[in-house]
Specification:
The protein is of the alpha+beta class. Helix 3 packs across helix 4 (about 70-80). The radius of gyration is 26 Å and the shape is elongated. It has ten helices and five strands, in the order H-H-H-H-H-H-H-H-E-E-H-E-H-E-E.
């Protein structure tokens, strides 16, 4: 067994001292002003703060052994430093994390939802010129959903949106769509074209056989009523798949 020398003891004491003076392990109120998240936000603006620092301001405090910033770094690391994944967490899931009670969990999810609503409001396009436009409109509505949802965009001859609505909501692996109801709504709104859109909660931006079959059925119904089915867009988290961009046969009536 190796004997502990005086130098070893001094090295251990030095390391312990370094750990002790690290800002992460000290309460935020003992940090210098340029380190504190609130003061940093006031003096340098919101963009100067990391995600962990912004969330630390919201939750307000950490634990006896961990600052709020360090705690939020740990939580973000649990969710791969991805705010989208954090926003999909449940209250029960968050409260299982050390230091997070119901108050902090609800504060975090409320912030994530406000961010999502801001994305929705900032993407209120009224004209569709490509699949990217459709994805920008529908992405914020669908990317956080844990269940499949089927939406329809009704357009006029200039490809301006007349109306968009939820046509069906299902489980984690599928959703039923009433084609007759979709056509009836299009006729009622005097739409000359439609875009259908649904999400894949799995995050896989690849159409299934069922997706292609539904597209073909709606395409034939549109053709019979002289309505153009412009696209079927699948939203999968932050990605999307366009039937039109990939020249899918199911989008066309042969």
């Amino acid at each position: 067994m190796k004997k502990t020398t005086k130098n070893d003891t001094q090295d251990n004491e030095s390391t312990a001292s370094l750990v002790h003076i690290s800002p992460i392990s000290r309460p935020i109120h003992s940090w210098s002003e340029d380190e504190r998240p609130r003061e940093k936000l006031i003096s340098k603006g919101t963009r100067s703060l990391s995600d962990a620092e912004l969330l630390a301001i919201l939750v307000g405090s950490g634990t006896a052994s961990e600052s709020a910033v360090d705690m939020m770094r740990r939580i973000l690391d649990t969710y791969e430093n991805n705010l989208f994944l954090l926003g999909r967490a449940s209250i029960s899931e968050l409260t299982r994390i050390k230091g997070i009670g119901p108050a902090k969990a609800t504060t975090i999810l409320a912030a994530m939802e406000l961010s999502n609503r801001q994305r929705v409001q900032s993407s209120q396009l009224t004209h569709i010129s490509c699949s990217e436009d459709a994805a920008k409109i529908m992405g914020p509505l669908l990317m956080d959903s844990c269940y499949e949802e089927f939406w329809v965009l009704l357009l006029n001859r200039a490809n301006r949106i007349l109306y968009k609505y939820l046509a069906g909501k299902g489980g984690v692996a599928g959703v039923a769509v009433d084609t007759h109801a979709v056509m009836r709504e299009a006729i009622t709104r005097n739409a000359t074209a439609i875009i259908i859109c649904h999400n894949h909660p799995s995050g896989q931006a690849v159409p299934s056989k069922e997706d292609k079959k539904v597209t073909e059925i709606i395409s034939r119904a549109c053709h019979a009523l002289k309505i153009t089915l412009l696209d079927h867009v699948i939203v999968a988290n932050e990605k999307h798949y366009s039937f039109s961009d990939h020249n899918e046969d199911s989008l066309k009536v042969l």
